[in-house]
Amino acid sequence: MSSTDQQDQEVPTEVVQPVQVLYCEICTFPPEYCEFGSSFTRCKEWLHAAHPQLFEKYYSEEALQSKLGTLSLEAQAMLEKDTAKKEAKAEAKADAALKKKMASQVVIKRIERNKRKYVTAIHGIEVFDIELKKAAKFLAQKFATGASVTKNAQGQDEIVVQGDVAEEVLELIENNTGIFKGIPAGNVEIVEDKKKKAAE
Amino acid sequence: MFKKFSPSTDIASQTPPKSSVQRTIRAAVLAQWQLQPETLEQIWPKKESLTHVKCREHISIYTVNSEPFFFQYFDGPFYPTLRLLHKYPFLLPKVGIDRGAIRFLLAGAHMMCPGLTSAGGYLPPAEHQVPANTLVAIHAEGKEHAVAVGMTKLSTEEMRKVNKGTGVEIATHLGDDLWAIQVL
């Protein structure tokens, strides 16, 4: 016990403890920089709810006054306009991304590899924030077969599972639980791909 | 440097360097930053192995516990990441920029001399002047935490005299793609 006590006394003179910095949960900046981010309004709301004192510190009347500092009024107006523009842009971008996500298709492909032997390729689930590697591992375990992440002919990543498991995978996705959360069931389709006869 | 950086395409390999190399890195870090060995021990315990993340264009990021810790361009000095600098703000000498320059900095611009010499900016006094090609932490007018890490192109006295052109080249700033990476 005494040895640790000694350490406690000696250490603080030399080791400097890290400063705990609070980061905004919305834009990840320290809150004092939120005003330069692309989600200022939401950041402000978050700070107001989570840390009222800090909100007071940064956004009270005097704080806003003193913040102007050496900057001219016009430059400040410009900055505000800029922020608003940036915010609108970021919002539009997020909207578009969401739309695209909702419209994108997940394709489960049954590929004939040999007579009576199939592999199942699942393509397009990475759009829904699913980690392909983890999903492949999960499928491999579930079906007790091999499953891997490979690049297809178009150079996109897809999961290839050995064996014909298309129906089962579809069911898993429709259940919308576990690792396949967040895929709208309507966006999934099963495609069959017969091996072409060797070209002559 | 990290304006566009995505881990999936820009990282070539992740390997732990030899322990002898780690020793030299440790010594170099201690020499380059204003840092006591004991404090470094706390940031980067001896037992924790460093991981060298090789990226495109000769950028190497070093991680401890898969958290980016510092990075290097070619064989240059070690830049601390901004998150590390926030925790230990005394690592590098400080310069300040005025409020008008912040938004340009956050868009990735290098810092021009007038932004550093104006009323809102801050340059260390003449007796503590920072020579050229030194790492500096860039703070902003009225803000508590650093906003960027950069390398001076001129000594701070020259900046005062010339007052034109690039004063500090920015390596990483708040909101760039290195900032977005919290775990590698």
From TrEMBL, chain A:
Gene Ontology BP annotations: formation of translation preinitiation complex; translation reinitiation
Keyword vocabulary terms for this entry: Cytoplasm, Initiation factor, Protein biosynthesis, Ribonucleoprotein, Ribosomal protein
Primary location class: cytoplasm
Gene Ontology MF: a single term: translation initiation factor activity
Ribosomal protein is among the record's keywords: yes
Record domain SUI1: where: 106-177
Cellular compartments annotated: Cytoplasm
PROSITE patterns: SUI1 (PS50296)
Entry keyword Membrane: no
Pfam families in the record: DENR_N, SUI1
InterPro entries: DENR/SUI1_TIF, DENR_C, DENR_eukaryotes, DENR_N, SUI1, SUI1_dom_sf
One cellular component (GO) term of this entry: cytoplasm
Similarity field: Belongs to the DENR family.
Domain notes: The SUI1 domain may be involved in RNA binding.
Quaternary structure annotation from Swiss-Prot or TrEMBL: Interacts with the 40S ribosomal subunit.
Protein name, UniProt field: Translation machinery-associated protein 22
Organism this protein belongs to: Boletus edulis BED1
From TrEMBL, chain B:
GO molecular function: RNA binding
UniProt xrefs under Pfam families: Pre-PUA, PUA
Keywords assigned by UniProt, alphabetized: Cytoplasm
Location (main, coarse): cytoplasm
The keyword Cell cycle is annotated on this UniProt entry: no
Gene Ontology biological-process annotations: formation of translation preinitiation complex
Origin superkingdom: Eukaryota
InterPro entries in the cross-refs: MCT-1/Tma20 (IPR016437), Pre-PUA (IPR041366), PUA (IPR002478), PUA-like_sf (IPR015947), Uncharacterised_CHP00451 (IPR004521)
Residues in PUA domain copies: 93-175
SMART domains: PUA
CDD domains referenced in this protein's UniProt entry, alphabetically: MCT1_N, PUA_MCTS-1-like
Entry's localization field: Cytoplasm
A cellular component annotation (GO) from this entry: cytoplasm
Biological role stated in the UniProt entry: Involved in translation.
PANTHER family: MALIGNANT T-CELL-AMPLIFIED SEQUENCE 1 (PTHR22798:SF0), MCT-1 PROTEIN (PTHR22798)
Family to which the UniProt record says this protein belongs: Belongs to the TMA20 family.
Protein name: Translation machinery-associated protein 20
Protein's organism: Boletus edulis BED1
